[in-house]
Each structure stands twice: as structure tokens, then as C-alpha cells.
Design a protein that fits this description.
Length: 101
């Protein structure tokens, strides 16, 4: 790589690093954003949504992928999972942080 190209690339990396430091929170990927949008939409329509409903959204990914993304959203504090009346099912509700997003 020439010196001019490498210095432009170094400046670019420094810019990306500075932007990441301005917003230290972990960014959500597109699958997590889609899941969170669906959860918030259901919440605003006063409809309960279950983990099983979300992991069956095959257009977003496999069940294992979606389950992992739900665990990430829960760990980051965007959603809460509460046991439904039927103890075998978990209802997903957005947290206050997710509603501010």
C-alpha cells in the first residue's frame, strides 16, 4: 500500500474508533433490531408475544440464531422474559430502555 493510501486508512480507523468511544454501548445487528421492532410493535398493540412466536420468524434466521439474539437483547437490557400463565411459555416485553430507543 502506498503511504498516501495507508495514511487515509489510518485516519479512517481513528475516526471509527473515536465514533465508537462516543457511543460505548454495543450496537445491535439487523436481526436484533428486527426482533426488537417486532416486540415493541406488539407491545404498543397490547398483544403478547412469546419466545416461540419470535424464533419461528424464519425470514430472519434459524431458530438457534434467533434464540441467541433474544438472549443478547435480554443481557443488554432491551427485553425482559416473563413466564406466561402456562409455565412452559415465556412472554417477551420491552424494557424502558428499549421503549426510549
Amino acid at each position: 500500500m502506498s503511504t498516501a493510501k495507508s495514511s487515509c486508512y489510518i485516519r479512517f480507523l481513528n475516526l471509527i474508533d473515536a465514533l465508537d468511544r462516543m457511543n460505548p454501548g454495543k450496537k445491535l445487528d439487523s436481526v436484533e433490531e428486527s426482533l426488537l421492532d417486532k416486540i415493541i410493535l406488539s407491545f404498543h398493540e397490547n398483544q403478547s408475544i412469546l419466545v416461540g412466536d419470535l424464533i419461528s420468524m424464519s425470514e430472519l434466521g434459524s431458530q438457534a440464531t434467533l434464540h441467541g439474539r433474544l438472549k443478547n437483547l435480554s443481557a443488554l437490557g432491551y427485553i425482559k422474559m416473563a413466564a406466561n400463565q402456562d409455565g412452559r411459555k415465556k412472554e417477551v416485553v420491552p424494557s424502558k430502555m428499549a421503549l426510549k430507543r
